[in-house]
Amino acid sequence: MSQTSLPEHRVLVAEANLRDLGDLPTTDGRTVRTGRLFRSGYLCDLQGSALATVEGLGLRTIIDLRRPDEVRNRPHPDFDGTEVVHVSVSADDNEFAVLANRMEVDPSAIPGPELIADYFRNTVRNRLDRYRTVFDLATDPDRHPLLFNCTAGKDRTGFVAGSLLRLLGVPEEVVITDYLLSNDVRRKWIQQREDQHRQLIADRLHVAPDEVGDEHMVNTRAILWCKAAYLAASFDTVEEFWGTWETFRRDGLGLDDTRMDAFHDAMLA
To answer: For 8-267, CATH number?
Structure first.
């Protein structure tokens, strides 16, 4: 897959993985407008200029994709004039949780990358009922400016962002490059967590950290890093189940032509 560079100014607050979905090209020569849709991880630790950046977005709506326990542990700050809508899109026993729990027993017990790809496939196969409200809100221009978030801002958020961009006509390779941008934005944090996991595995194996082979890190990396194959698994499943994105948005997401026309008018220049 070809690599497509993305404008760096789309990253607004790196520590929250907060990015503008705009300024991306579509297949028909238009551009996604900036300042209308945003994606992020949790926002509770933001202070100073970072917090002021979020406040300056003038958000009408935040869609919080997290589970109730995640919301309790890291509640959003209060933003004047912003309605926060909680739409939990993943169950406690989702594939990420299954992998994390099994890794506590044996870090290499199951094929983590395939399990995470299944998470993205199953989002389209089995979880669309959880997401329909999200897409109904996100495609309503009266709700904009709108931000949607999860904890890391990469997987649940990545699926929503990727699907919205595909519905706007952004090419798949550009959408996947946007998804992978989370690796760059969060690289320092990811590498710290990877080092922590490596130490835990070293302790379990009674070896030094630098003696832990890559084969022991596969599942850790599956959880921490975005991989093109993950989001592509969702996109492939859309085509497998629905044939086209038009059918998917109409019959899968329940977005009619009137709503989609209004969304395109609001989002494309």
So the answer is: 3.90.190.10
